[in-house]
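Quick one: structure for this chain?
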Amino acid sequence: MTTVILKGGQAKGYRDVMLACNLLEQKHPGLSIAKLQRLLLMERGTVEGLLSVIEGAPIDVQVVMQQENGSTWKRITELKNGASTLLKATSTIFTESIPSNILSELQDRRLGIGEILGRYNIETRREITEIGYDPKSERFYRVYDIYAGGKVWFTIHESFEQALYCYG
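Got it. Here's what it folds into:
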């Protein structure tokens, strides 16, 4: 597994993510990161929205598991188009700073985090901290934090298969 830790623990812009992708290609001869794959690794909005545009269809968010333990919750989700799993995500949710209405939506397990934040017009900032590739599982991944009100509300690890969107 190769992880590129971005400068200062975060991507300052798309250029940092592009350079990280180039470094992954250098570390894995024969690996080529297609344009659509780069878009998924660089996305700073909702990845659900981007996947919906790419797929030309609404994306289903399935909460596979959610553990609610005190001030830190764990959530595993899959983003799907029909039976196809497009992306897997593991989220750490830091509940102490999150308003109760958003926590209630998370407990319902019906919507993705990005959709919930959008529903309540929460102003957020996403900072990508890692981008990587796991040759054993043949999956690209990224880790990022979602900030609101100056505090980290979520840390999210997303991964998708190398074969996904390997064209274009």
